[in-house]
Amino acid sequence: MMTAAAKSAERIYAVLIRHLYILRGSKARIIEIIYWPSVQMILWGFISRFFAMSGGQAGMGQKAFGILLGAVLLWDMLFRTQLGVTLSYLEEVWARNLGHLFVSPLRPWEWWMAMMVFSVLRALAGMLPATILAIPFYGYSLFDLGLPLLFFFFNLMFMGWWLGFLIMALLLKAGQGAETLAWALTFFLAPFCAVYYPISSLPGWLQPVAQAMPASHVFEGLRSIINNGVFEASHMWWAFLLNCGYMAISMFLLQLSFNSARKAGTLLQSGE
Q1: Residue 117: left (phi > 0), alpha (psi -120 to 50), or beta?
Q2: Beta-carbon neighbour count of residue 190 at 10 Å?
Q3: Residue 263 maps to a domain
Q4: Count of domains in the chain?
Q5: Which domain holds residue 247?
Q6: Is residue 214 domain-resident?
Q7: What are the tens digits of pLDDT across the range 23-72?
Q8: Of 74, 247, 232, the residue nearest 153 (C-alpha)
Q9: What tens digit of pLDDT does each residue of 85-140 get?
């Protein structure tokens, strides 16, 4: 005869086993457990290295404040834009609405354009209050960057769009088990985007990877304005050209995944 305590322990064990089986059956969940601590370690390790390298430079403390706060606000623009695209797709999946959308005259490119517009509105709704609040709280105005700020915004939104479409392509291919990519992929790229530190702070073998990231050129441009008062247009051109190339690749992969999902009938089966 089992005691009440033993029965409770058995039920607790059953729930535990259930979640362990779920974890074992999902590579994405296992990777996520390892992923976040590793990315945090790499990111803050490079930030610390940057401060160690620049500690002796005159006036670096004041400049670093502007660089870090500006980088935080601009990086959020990229992340919110990407999330706006990805979550728009996931909302349709969770509501089992994909089938309804595509029995209508709606074309895929029209759906994607609507996502891009919505992602910008969503990103601006989140970022503008934060940017304005930084003025009374810290005496820092991102708007002081002037016209270059528009170039920074555009290139970061552009990167957010193609990242969102790339994640959509992966979700269409891999299914809802890969939902964690909606939040994880952008942060995975963060250490290589030189958000809070210059590309020169990275090890030599990682610097070409950073040079291939459009966001790296945006943040190098931000640091150039704050440190030297110079707007380097070449960084914006590199960011734009890289974004165009990556957008073409992501749209190709998205169309490929969409066609495959439509033929396989998985668009109608997607949902909670």
Answers
A1: alpha
A2: 20
A3: yes
A4: 1
A5: 45-51+59-269
A6: yes
A7: 677 666 666 666 555 665 566 566 656 666 655 554 555 566 677 778 88
A8: 74
A9: 888 888 888 777 777 777 777 788 888 888 888 888 888 888 888 888 888 877 77
